[in-house]
UniProtKB/TrEMBL annotation:
This is GDP-L-fucose synthase. It is an enzyme of class 1 (oxidoreductase). HAMAP family: GDP_fucose_synth. Residues 329-364 are annotated as: Disordered. Residues 336-346 have a biased composition (Basic and acidic residues). Belongs to the NAD(P)-dependent epimerase/dehydratase family. Fucose synthase subfamily. Pathway: Nucleotide-sugar biosynthesis; GDP-L-fucose biosynthesis via de novo pathway; GDP-L-fucose from GDP-alpha-D-mannose: step 2/2. It comes from the Eukaryota.
Length: 364
């Protein structure tokens, strides 16, 4: 290894082929070097997916840490699915995510990784609790029954982070995004989240002249964050945030919208003019889970979120242009190995006036 390589600090992003990881890769590849959300000199960013190592397996997880010796990890890898996938597979979501998260944190401790930010979700919060959700309310009661497996596995990360800090002094934290959408999402018809699922359904309804059917009543409310905005908030956390306390990463709680408003916006954006109805025999899931972003906004001093309609427009455009390489659940180029992916970031120059960032200094 050359001197310049040995002076580099490595940041690993797990789950980097997914919705959120692709957005972080895109931001890191496109923001200017040394800018607030860009790469910094002396950093090597490594973006991993399941084919680079199955993180359910302790040996493969440990081999990943031994190979890259990361100073920091943004841990996104997870078994992820929308309401209906979760309802069918609560045990699988519980077990796989417990295994992945336990392996990631234990190997990070063993390999002396300085910082880990794990990704939770607002479904960790109790079903019955006073709104808005805030970081202090995670453990105040059981989560909603529809996805209790995934929710409990994610909730345990907060418990683990606190225990690692108490026993070993580790700097492990967690982020709690609300519902996310954007390019590179999972557009499967059955197993995806609501926005990519409905986009794909509307796309096929328009193409085949069939009805566009939305599951449930359309009345539940959700807060959506654009994946590229979320990526910037993660990069901010990596640079600036060193507390075990989780941080909610979200648009404001006044930006809840109903599933019907989401479906209307997709119909508009896709130019669909056919029959459109709701299948009320299907579950609505949790009615709402509004989360406060006051904590991160006070720490960051504000952030300009992409308006929902603009982000939806960009996502529809990406989906239509990349249908063959998108994760549609059908046999296509994505399943045959030609999955659409953002380009790799350029290698960074070796030394940095800012490489002493408190979060990432290999000697901290
Ligand atoms: P995603 O698109 O489904 O991507 C999941 C990623 O995890 C992929 O890169 C996948 O790799 C990887 N992965 C899955 N199982 C793995 C394993 N056993 N070993 C190694 N890697 C594995 O998910 P996402 O929506 O980007 O979610 C990222 C994070 O955000 C997750 O922690 C999720 O819980 C959280 N989150 C998501 C949302 C949302 O609305 N999507 C909301 C809140 C929180 P392959 O591509 O190779 O399979
Ligand atoms: P959740 O926030 O974890 O419940 O995640 P989802 O992204 O799966 O959103 C679920 C909400 O969207 C529920 O109210 C569903 O009834 C509604 N919904 C409507 N159509 C669909 C669809 O095609 N897929 C999914 N996942 N949800 C849908």
């Amino acid at each position: 290894m050359s001197t310049s390589e040995s002076q580099q600090v490595t940041i690993v992003v797990t789950g980097a082929s997914g919705l959120v990881g692709s957005a972080i890769k895109q931001v890191i590849a496109t923001e200017p070097l040394d800018s607030p959300y860009g790469r910094r000199r002396g950093e090597r960013w490594v973006f991993l997916r399941s084919t680079d190592g199955d993180l359910r397996d302790p040996a493969q997880t440990d081999a990943m840490y031994a190979k890259y010796k990361p100073v920091a990890v943004i841990h996104l890898a997870a078994l992820v699915g929308g309401l209906f996938n979760n309802m069918r597979h609560n045990l699988t979501f519980l077990r796989e995510n417990l295994l992945i998260n336990d392996n990631i944190l234990w190997s990070a401790y063993k390999h002396n990784t300085k910082k880990v930010i794990s990704c939770l979700s607002t479904c960790v919060f109790p079903d019955k609790v006073e709104y808005p959700l805030t970081e202090a309310k995670i453990h105040l009661g059981p989560p909603h029954s529809s996805n209790f497996g995934y929710s409990h596995a994610k909730r345990m990360v907060d418990v683990q982070n606190r225990a690692y800090k108490e026993e070993f002094g580790c700097n492990f934290s967690s982020a709690i995004p609300t519902n996310v959408f954007g390019p590179y999402d999972n557009f499967d018809l059955e197993d995806s989240h609501v926005i990519p699922g409905l986009m794909h359904k509307c796309y096929l309804a328009k193409k085949n002249g069939t009805p566009f059917i939305v599951s449930g009543t359309g009345k539940p409310l959700r807060q959506f964050i654009y994946s590229l905005d979320l990526a910037k908030l993660f990069i901010w956390m990596l640079r600036e945030y060193d507390s075990v306390e989780p941080l909610i990463l979200s648009v404001g709680e006044d930006e809840e919208i109903s599933i019907k408003e989401v479906a209307d916006a997709i119909v508009r954006e896709m130019g669909f003019t056919g029959e459109y109805r709701f299948d009320t025999t299907k579950s609505d899931g949790q009615f709402r889970k509004p989360a406060s972003n006051a904590q991160i906004m006070s720490l960051m001093g504000g952030f300009k979120f992409t308006p929902f309609d603009v982000a939806l427009h960009e996502t529809v455009k990406w989906f239509e242009e990349n249908y063959d390489g998108a994760r549609t659940g059908f046999k296509n180029s994505a399943t045959e190995g030609k999955r659409a992916q953002p380009k790799e970031p350029e290698p960074t120059p070796p030394s940095s006036p800012r490489a002493d960032s408190k979060a990432l200094n290999a000697s901290t």
